Amino acid sequence: MAEQPPAERTPVALSLPIAGRPVERADAARNRRKILVAAAGIVSRAGITALSLDEVARVAGVGVGTVYRRFGDRAGLIFALLDEEERQFQSAFMQGPPPLGPGGPPAERVRAFLHALVDRVEAQRELLVAAETSSPTARFTSGPYTIYHIHLVTLLGLARPGVDAHFVAAALLAPLSATFLTFQRRERGFAVDAIKAGLDDLLGLGL
What we know:
Shape: elongated
CATH topology of the largest domain: Tetracycline Repressor, domain 2
Distance between the termini: 52 Å
Radius of gyration: 18 Å
Mean pLDDT: 87
Strand content: under 5%
CATH class of the largest domain: Mainly Alpha
CATH architecture of the largest domain: Orthogonal Bundle
Number of strands: 0
Order of helices and strands: HHHHHHHHHHH
Structural class: mainly alpha
């Protein structure tokens, strides 16, 4: 059955907060948990292609409108499934030990961040591919991408004053999309270490 959003749908941004979640009502928190458990179960049993908002609502025992209001669309639900690992990753580069976290030279932190992001994407590539390809701009309007870009812009501005940090940050993030990494891993046969070495070569051209 094709997914049909309710007549009055409030768009939900594809975002993950940096700090803790806002306080939810108890019933809203229960529904969120039921929906996420149902979605994770579907992905575990049948793969990401089986994930639809209608099926999630059926398994969770809630109305499909509840799923739409809580997550906005399929991509929003997928990003929510990625939430815990994403929070751990953000905590590591914002608050963890150097060189990934604060305290190291900016150029070293850029390298550590890119290497860590390769591992982050590799760990949940299937879900990330589904999220990134849900719409032409899904990756770039997501909360994680926005945070990554801001983080790199800040570090690049410190490492190379005068560089167009916004453009360079976007250029460095481009080969780290889940779709591109999947192509490199499956079609080109690149190992994770080879991808990281390629990023080091790229950084060596300008940092």
